[in-house]
UniProtKB/TrEMBL annotation:
Signal peptide limits: 1-18
Top-rank taxon, per record: Eukaryota
EC number from the UniProt entry: 3.4.21.10
Catalytic activity: Preferential cleavage: Arg-|-Xaa, Lys-|-Xaa
GO biological process entries: proteolysis
Pfam family, one: Trypsin
CDD domains in alphabetical order: Tryp_SPc
InterPro entries cross-referenced by the UniProt entry: Peptidase_S1_PA (IPR009003), Peptidase_S1_PA_chymotrypsin (IPR043504), Peptidase_S1A (IPR001314), Trypsin_dom (IPR001254), TRYPSIN_HIS (IPR018114), TRYPSIN_SER (IPR033116)
PANTHER family registered for this protein in UniProt: ACROSIN, ACROSIN-RELATED
Protein's name in the database: Acrosin
Keywords: Disulfide bond, Hydrolase, Protease, Serine protease, Signal
Residues covered by the Peptidase S1 domain: 42-288
Single GO molecular function: serine-type endopeptidase activity
Length: 345
């Protein structure tokens, strides 16, 4: 059973001519690019318009010049991405490419000063699959090809008149439309990333759905998105990239981070995403300098690589009840140790 950590896959399907435009609030401080987004409805993925998703950046391994993950700009010096992207990677070997839809082209390059992986990240279940990247120098935000994405806030959970009230830990609302973008493989059997940024519209799937319940380990910090008919998904190479929701305030909100999935575009296996709304306090505390910034890169460098992940698949899927109890115990102990050492500093 092959269990793949993700990045944006789009299985080829026939394209419908019907399109939907999202015109942003030009006065918004985040979540709006210089060009409006144009999305084909219902069907599979498609190339993105230039400068329509200006907050996505690509991460390259400098020694090999190979693309491996994506990230989202949340400020001029901070990026948000998936923790599993840094398994066995040193931050000094990574180059950030920003400002272009083309994978090997960019208007700005940056090095990484620090990678802060969430302390509860579990390399087996991918719970807390979230990390912050601090750049060595600020991005030039006057560049029209660069923008920042909005983080979820309390106001984003205020429902439309036809939606029930939801909790921050249930954001995005189930069955809501969400958009994933990335340079991942275009099909499950591809071996190379897409050279051009792709976009696809998905749906947030209820946890109670059998396809989702079998895929995630902690519904409070993970959620599913996909298409019930299959053919629309993220894939290898899309990891760390944004899953976004357009709000009534005409801004794009970072609802999820591409984390993992089984295969690409399979109807019985939706993609799994990190629920960003659960982590906004942690993100804001670090980026605003409210807590001591700790570099967890040494711990992450010792965890199991993606090449070894298939060895754990049968265990993960067949031992879920036991895993849930062990994970709860692990999180309690981890939180206790974290609080103890923070008080000791």
């Amino acid at each position: 059973m092959l269990f793949l950590p993700f990045l944006l896959v789009i299985v080829a399907t026939a394209k419908v001519a019907c399109e939907h435009e999202h015109a942003c609030n030009i006065r918004a401080s985040c979540g709006c690019s210089t060009r409006l987004t144009i999305l084909a409805k219902i069907v599979g993925g498609e190339p993105a318009q230039p400068r329509s998703w200006s907050w996505i950046v690509s991460l390259f391994d400098h020694p090999t010049n190979k693309f491996f993950c994506a990230a989202s700009i949340i400020s001029n010096v901070w990026l948000l991405t998936a923790a599993h992207c840094f398994i066995r990677r040193d931050h000094s070997d990574i180059i950030v490419h920003a400002g272009s839809n083309q994978l090997n082209d960019s208007t700005q390059h940056r090095h990484i000063a620090k990678i802060i992986v969430h302390p509860e990240f579990n390399q087996h279940t991918f719970v807390a699959d979230i990390a912050l990247i601090q750049l060595t120098s600020p991005l030039d935000m006057t560049d029209l090809s660069i923008a920042k994405i909005c983080l979820p806030a309390i106001r984003d959970t205020i429902p439309d008149e036809n939606e029930p009230t939801i909790d921050m830990n249930e954001y995005p609302p189930v069955n809501s439309a969400v958009v994933a973008v990335g340079w991942g493989q275009l099909a499950e059997n591809d071996r190379s990333p897409s050279r051009e940024l792709q976009q696809v519209t998905l749906k947030a799937i209820p946890y109670e759905s059998k396809t989702c319940e079998d895929m995630i380990f902690d519904r409070s910090v993970q959620f599913c998105a996909g298409d019930e008919m299959g053919g629309k998904d993220t894939c290898q190479g899309d990891s760390g990239g944004p899953l976004m929701r357009f709000t009534s305030e005409r801004q794009w909100i970072l609802a999820g981070i591409t984390s993992y999935g089984k295969g690409c575009g399979r109807p019985e296996y939706p993609g799994v995403y990190t629920r960003v709304a659960f982590y906004t306090d942690w993100i804001n505390a670090i980026t605003n300098g409210l807590v001591r910034r700790i570099d967890f890169s040494m711990e992450v460098s010792e965890v199991i690589s993606r090449d070894d992940q298939d060895l754990f698949d049968d265990f993960l899927f067949n031992m879920c009840p036991s895993l849930n109890r062990l994970r709860l115990l692990y999180m309690i102990v981890s939180l206790g140790l974290q609080l103890y050492f923070s008080q000791s500093i």
